[in-house]
Each structure stands twice: as structure tokens, then as C-alpha cells.
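Dig into this one:

. . .
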Amino acid sequence: MPKFISLFSLTSDTLARFIEHPEDRRGAVARSAEAAGGRLEAYYWMFGPYDGLAIVEMPDAAAAAAVVLANTSSGAFKHMETHALIEADDLVAILQTAQALRPSYRPPGQPGG
């Protein structure tokens, strides 16, 4: 199954409520992923521009997008950014495909179009 990483920042109101009522959010995140046929692989809190991240396995990009939309519509997040993850074992085949496709692209301003 494809994997996705979501980096998130919570609103100040959400953080205030979280401090008033501390809880482990892994269960809620796992249930959200499972409801769309996926699985939570990792969940971390961190310092910096993001408050945390979640790595999930999802059936496809549409399922991942649906979970992100459902979660962000709660209003709890200031920012959420989600990316598909590429397995290291897949990189050589991807690069070979890119090599084969390279001649089909003409950069802007280059003649021959």
C-alpha cells in the first residue's frame, strides 16, 4: 500500500484545549486512517514549524486525500501538508523512466515546439 506523510501545525485554540485536556492522539489518528482502509504507521510530535507528523499506509491517494480533508475540516489545524512517500527500492526504476521521458519535454523558451 502507498505511504503518505502528513506534517501538521495546530491552531493556538487547539493547543490551549490540548493543554487543558491532555490526551494521546494516536488512537484518533489511527481510527481515522483505518476508517478509510489504511493504517497508521508512525505518529510523532516535534519542535519547529510543525507540531507533529503522521505516516500512514493508505489504499490510494484518493483515500489519503479524503482523510486529510475530513481531519482538516475539524478546524483544529493551522496547517497540514501531505506528501506521498517513495520507497528507496522504487527509485532506480523511477529514474530510468524519467531518463526515457526526458526527450519528450521541451523547456520554456527552447525552439522546436
